[in-house]
Write a structure and sequence with these properties.
Length: about 400
């Protein structure tokens, strides 16, 4: 049973009334509840518990009707004009709600360290031994619980504290794996120990050579606890940082530390370093993948204007021809997050990255040579091509 969360009404106090509906077959309304407090304060003021209680009731209803367990997404604080259907996430969230419905200690953990509970839920879903051991595990101090989750003898207090500082903006399996890798990496954890908050969109950067030196960004993120404002600070810039970090990884550590500290004192500095690395050809060997590797069939078939790039070698060639860093996206394409297309539209030659979401496709990025912007007409043609492909997909 796939469920979707819809905003049904904006309340005068800034809270939202939310409906849960079935996405398969007729739209069945399972129930609604009001958040009862400003949207961006839900983690601090106990709204999580309300959501988990509500989720537990839905789990019981699903069990009674012998359907699959419903999967709820952690609700995201978007601005009002952008809030729509919020998509479900995978098994760990379902397990988290199941745990909370069975053990009151899990609700306490949700309020004190939600990310640790997410890791516990994932381990519970993956390891049958945890089903019987869970009550004892939840009674452990958080350091011992995290050590058990990671299967290590002990962890440092900083590793537990970092989990409390991470602000979730999504809940995919890919992010879960990045979170596990980060919290198990003591060097990365210690490098970020002075960060008061870390939006989850930055987790893929945490072990790289760039983020740890961006003290000015740390201070800007510390200036607010509002998730929407944090998103605005990072809007359109995470990919820039990720591409730059990936290109830096092939250089010696001493070189990258000095280079980042000297050059990356603001967003413009990161952009200039990015462009220098592209000119130096760093993007073309930033992937460890075999150039002969195929990415598999594209989500949207090629045509005369939009041609799918199906191998690592083709992607590297595209980066060289277009003089940008698209080759750094090879890992993302291989992971199924996106697909890259070579574009020839209205006399403009570009590179298009199509993001692959659960129920639809989006344009992640569209660039001409040397990262120039396409014309409005070319943008419109790309959007029309993607929308037409999306309509055809829904008819199957």
């Amino acid at each position: 049973m796939f469920l979707s969360v819809f905003v049904s009404r904006y309340c005068d106090d800034g809270s939202l009334e939310v409906d849960l509906r079935d996405q398969q077959g007729p739209r069945v309304r399972y129930g609604s509840f009001a958040a009862g407090m400003p949207w961006h304060r839900w983690t601090a003021d106990g709204w999580v518990e309300t959501a988990f209680d509500w989720g537990a009731r839905l789990l019981n209803r699903a069990h009674e009707s012998r359907t699959d367990l419903p999967v709820l997404r952690y609700l995201q604080p978007w601005p009002r004009d952008l809030i729509g259907a919020l998509y479900p996430v995978w098994h760990a969230q379902s397990a988290v709600m199941q745990i909370c419905s069975l053990h009151s200690a899990a609700k306490d953990l949700a309020l004190s360290n939600l990310n640790l509970l997410w890791l516990v839920g994932a381990r519970y879903a993956e390891d049958a031994h945890w089903h019987s051991e869970l009550p004892e595990m939840l009674a452990l101090p958080q350091r011992e619980l995290l050590a058990a989750v990671l299967d290590v003898p002990q962890v440092r207090p900083a590793q537990v504290r970092l989990l409390r500082k991470i602000l979730l903006t999504e809940g995919t399996d890919i992010l879960l794996n990045h979170l596990r890798q980060l919290v198990a990496n003591e060097e990365a954890v210690m490098a970020l120990r002075h960060w008061p908050c870390l939006p989850s969109s930055l987790i893929p950067l945490a072990s790289g050579p760039l983020l740890r030196h961006l003290h000015w960004l740390r201070d800007r993120l510390a200036s607010t606890s509002n998730r929407w404002l944090l998103g605005q600070i990072l809007h359109g810039r995470v990919d820039l940082m990720l591409d730059t970090s990936r290109m830096l990884e092939r250089y010696p550590r001493d070189t990258t530390d000095a280079l980042v500290s000297w050059a990356c004192r603001d967003w413009d500095g990161i952009q200039r370093l990015h462009d220098v690395l592209v000119d130096a050809g760093a993007a073309n060997w930033s992937s460890d993948l075999d150039p002969r590797l195929s990415f598999g069939p594209p989500p949207i078939p090629s045509d005369d204007r939009f041609q799918a790039i199906t191998t690592v070698a083709e992607l590297i060639k595209e980066g060289k021809v277009m003089q940008h860093c698209v080759a750094t996206r090879a890992q993302d394409v291989q992971a199924g997050l996106c697909y890259i297309y070579r574009v020839n539209v209205l006399g403009e030659r570009g590179t298009l990255q199509v993001g692959i979401r659960t129920k639809h496709w989006v344009i992640d990025e569209f660039r001409l040579k040397r990262n120039a912007d396409p014309s409005p007409a070319t943008w419109a043609a790309a959007r029309e091509w993607l929308e037409r492909a999306g309509r055809q997909r829904k008819t199957y």
